[in-house]
Amino acid sequence: MRDQLEGLVTQMVDRGIMFDEAVGEFEKRFIKSVLDRAEGNQCRAAKILGIHRNTLSRKIGEYKLANGRGTRR
Description:
CATH superfamily: Homeodomain-like
Helix content: 55-70%
Largest sheet: none
Shape: elongated
Order of helices and strands: HHHH
Number of helices: 4
CATH class: Mainly Alpha
Structural class: mainly alpha
CATH architecture: Orthogonal Bundle
CATH topology: Arc Repressor Mutant, subunit A
Number of strands: 0
């Protein structure tokens, strides 16, 4: 996994992707994946992510993930 991540980072740097954009996209996809795994249950997803449910709810709104697969508020 470490080699895959290093390769991805190298590609992103080579393409001129800015740090904030990379972090935001990673966070968005990470949250979406966990929400899918938790079948849209935000309390369960927040616990898996290790963040407060209110923080998760704010990020769902920020990344416009509320219409995702079974996501509940």
